[in-house]
Write a structure and sequence with these properties.
- The protein is α/β, with parallel strands linked by helices and 87 residues long.
- It is 38% helix and 14% strand.
- The protein has three helices and three strands, in the order H-H-E-H-E-E.
- Strands 2-1-3 form a three-stranded parallel β-sheet, with no helix packed on it.
- It starts with a helix and ends with a strand.
Length: 87
């Protein structure tokens, strides 16, 4: 019975994931360009090791962080604009 309950919880979380993702705003490159240099802009590069190290494209002043540990975002004021990018 405990396994069935755990499985139901996992299925509910997976089913709700697209709903949460749909509520996250997406910014195009022109919007980002207009914000560059802003004091309250925080750009977090969450690409994994090889994706990051082999990329020739990096946003100036972006902070590279582990996408599984975003605690660095907690060190900034909540009213900042946070941009997470992975590609």
């Amino acid at each position: 019975m405990k396994r069935v309950f755990t499985l139901l919880i996992i299925l509910m979380v997976l089913a709700a994931s697209p709903l949460f993702a749909a509520s996250v705003p997406i910014m195009d490159k022109d919007e980002l360009k207009s914000l560059l240099g802003s004091e309250n802009l925080v750009i977090l590069d969450v690409r994994t090791g090889r994706d990051w190290s082999t990329s020739e494209f990096k946003i100036k002043d972006a902070l590279r962080v582990d996408g599984r540990d975003l605690s660095v975002a907690m060190t900034y004021p909540k009213d900042n604009t946070f941009v997470f990018y992975c590609a």
